[in-house]
Amino acid sequence: MEEKRTEISQLGEFGLIDRISESFELKNPSTVKGIGDDAAVMDAGDHYSLLSTDMLVEGIHFDLSYIPLAHLGYKSVAVNVSDIAAMNGKAEQIIVSIAISNRFSVQAIDELYKGIKTACESYRVDLVGGDTTSSSSGLIISVSVAGKVAKEKVAYRSGAKPGDIICVTGDLGAAFMGLQILEREKQVYLTDPNMQPNLQKYEYIVGRQLRPEARTDIISDLEEKGVKPSSMIDISDGLASELFHLVKNSGYGVRIFEDKVPIDKETFDTALEFNLDPITCALNGGEDYELLFTISQADFEKVKNHADIHMIGYMHETKSANVLITKQGNTVPLSAQGWNHFKP
Amino acid sequence: MEEKRTEISQLGEFGLIDRISESFELKNPSTVKGIGDDAAVMDAGDHYSLLSTDMLVEGIHFDLSYIPLAHLGYKSVAVNVSDIAAMNGKAEQIIVSIAISNRFSVQAIDELYKGIKTACESYRVDLVGGDTTSSSSGLIISVSVAGKVAKEKVAYRSGAKPGDIICVTGDLGAAFMGLQILEREKQVYLTDPNMQPNLQKYEYIVGRQLRPEARTDIISDLEEKGVKPSSMIDISDGLASELFHLVKNSGYGVRIFEDKVPIDKETFDTALEFNLDPITCALNGGEDYELLFTISQADFEKVKNHADIHMIGYMHETKSANVLITKQGNTVPLSAQGWNHFKP
Question: Are the Cβ atoms of B8 and A144 closer than 8 angstroms?
Fold first, then answer.
């Protein structure tokens, strides 16, 4: 009998993760939360320690024809720090492993680590270890991050309750539109190497793609205001996809108002230039690394005047009714496309 | 002026690590030890937490034409657990990131995680997270491990004092000779696919290559006997290379006796079959994942009857005099070849 072969693309990334995590049990008393949130949570006595990881692969997550190595180094740290922020925690240490082909010189590696160092300084994390090895093709960066959070302050994906207000930070869709610009200018350049890329008009969105920031400032602000989010996640795969994580983990539904979703003017205009609907870009564009969180209504007053926190909707009882209220007042079902690196 | 290009092979892996770590400062008060030991050490209040990582790259660290995926999964966990053991600590959680090309089916990934699961059970560690992504070529596995150790028990590479006894566990050179057998049988098979690989005679050494174990049992035994090693490291790059790490970190020299270095009979016989000197294989063959440690002479009685701990020499004052006393009584300088994945 022939053995059955299932393609990974049939499962997708989330399906694959579910399949893997199902077969594993947690056995150590220090393990508080395993697979399934932005970071793992471990009991360290008087606090929780947090652990997360992200792997960036050349040709899949980045294209060295347009991302400078220093930015790539910065980004590889920022996306990990963002995972710790999404637990309402503070990142403290990172370890960085790289696999590099002999295409890369020592000077290139210096550039990469220059960006890693800048990010370490900006987020006050220490580089404490890693692994360096060669690869037969391209560059792979695997960063793990350790952090901590007070036990009573940890924010999971699961804690939202009906009536809780849904908040997002910053603005959305910018990193996705920045990527469209970079891809377009690359094609122009490949067609005619004498053409200079036209990026000036798109400085903000290109910067959002090449050098995202983790919103550690928001974590400090929330602490200062005495607000503990009832749930939180960072927006790496797109707002809609992350909203569905909150739905799945809380057991409640979401109602989102289109006119409340923050979109920068440059993102908006560029979306139109590409004949894309700006709200679709904001809902489904990934890599913004903003925070999505819920707060109880009792905390409304504490947050309402924060310039960079936007209330975009609320949680309600019905898990199956996840909707967007359009600017025209129509109620349409939310759908998540997210990112699937395994798509054929 | 043309920018200078330095090849990574000119620096080697250790040179590259030194170059990277030199430019980074540690700033967080919780960071006790950064780059430069088997694991990073963080102050977690009543204990130290430990963090380490290893990356395994197809075509560099493993060849799927002879390592079964389940063994590879097991090995990727074991080598990380070994890093925590080398700090005299206990591994508790791992996170596993994989990058996979579409050559791999879901069934193949199941096999890999079956091995990871077996290792998690055998070492009592929890899989708590990770990342899955596609790669344009081959399989990359990046594992990070978190563990803990009582503050007074942590063993660094740096603590050895003159007079301390140098110990190794198990036997050495086996994994290296196992690799030679696997490479030879692969060549035979490539020449004539009708030939069946002849591995039976080499079961022990091939097993040592394909499915190494972390010596967590030794950590328990030492604790039971009330012995705290004055320094410790795991043997991943070869005994000689690791001895030089102890020398560099302690500031003292080593004297090793050839007739005390443990070599299994199968390793010994196979080395001769390949016209290799068995002691050279034991000194320079990597991937045994045994422990190398030093104890004070006061602990001699507590350890001397342990069947799997071998005293192979001692530390002495002169850092520059690192020697091997041969079976014939000659004193020859030790030299470390180690492994350099960046060799051209």
Answer: no
Contact B55 A126 (CB under 8 A): no
Q: With an 8 Å Cβ cutoff, are B4 and A107 in contact? A: yes
Give SS3 for A110. helix
Q: Among A42, A54, A60, whose Cβ lies nearest the Cβ of B146?
A: A42
Yes or no: domain A165-333 corresponds to CATH 3.30.70.920: no
* Residue B3 DSSP code: P
Asked if residues A46 and B134 have their Cβ atoms less than 8 Å apart, the reply is no
Give the tens place of pLDDT for each residue, B50-102. Answer: 999 999 999 999 999 989 999 999 999 999 999 999 999 999 999 999 999 98
Q: Choose among A209, A251, A250, A240: nearest CA to A312.
A: A240
C-alpha distance from residue B320 to each of A174, A303, A319, B251, B253 (Å): 58, 64, 70, 9, 6
Give the separation between CA A258 and CA A313, rounded to whole angstroms: 9
Cβ separation A142–B105 shorter than 8 A:
no
Architecture of domain B25-153: 2-Layer Sandwich (3.30)
pLDDT digits (tens, 9 = 90+) for A280-294: 999 999 999 999 999
Q: Nearest residue of B to residue A114 by CA position? A: B23
pTM: 0.94
Residue limits of CATH 3.90.650.10 in chain A: 165-333
Amino acid at B26: L
Q: What is the DSSP string of B187-231?
A: HHHHH-TTSPP--GGGHHHHHHHHS----HHHHHHHHHTT---SE
What is chain B's mean pLDDT, rounded? Answer: 93
Q: What does the pLDDT average to over A217-235?
A: 98
What's the one-letter identity of residue A116?
I
C-alpha distances in Å from residue B310, one per residue of A337, B239, B263, B305: 59, 13, 11, 9
Residues 6+ away with beta carbon under 8 Å from B125:
A28, B77, B81, B91, B92, B93, B94, B119, B145
Q: Pick the residue from chain B with its C-alpha nearest to A93.
A: B31
From chain A, pick out residues whose CB is under 8 angstroms from the CB of B109. 8, 16, 20
Is A57's CB within 8 Å of B9's CB?
no
CATH number, domain A8-153, options 1.20.1540.10, 3.30.1330.10, 3.30.70.260, 3.30.1490.20: 3.30.1330.10
Q: Which two tokens stand for residue B131?
A: 């990342």
Instruction: Find which of A7, A107, A142 to mutate to test the B interface (most B CBs within 10 Å of its CB).
Output: A142
Structure confidence at residue A344 (pLDDT) = 41
Residues of chain B with CATH 3.30.1330.10: 25-153
Segment B258-273 mean pLDDT: 97
Measured between CA atoms, the residue of chain B closest to residue A97 is B55
Q: What is the pLDDT averaged over residues B10-18?
A: 86
